[in-house]
Amino acid sequence: MKMAEIHSEIQAGILDYLSNHPEESASVQVIYSHWLVNESVPYNIEQVQTALDRLVEHGELKKSIDTNIYSL
What we know:
Layout: H1 3-20, E1 25-26, H2 28-35, H3 45-57, E2 62-64, E3 69-71
Antiparallel strand pairs: 1-3, 2-3
Helix pairs in contact: 1-3, 2-3
């Protein structure tokens, strides 16, 4: 699987989680270890960070600069 596809799958997993838990917010570590536990695609924390950065760039997530917490 290509890197772009992995990042797409991770992004979809994050947005899916948030569609069911819109009030949630978390750090990359929590997202990596808790939000994506049901994903079938193997990934690492750096790939999750890249996926989060892309979601922020596209305006789909917000990132708190002071705390590095991601939310809708």
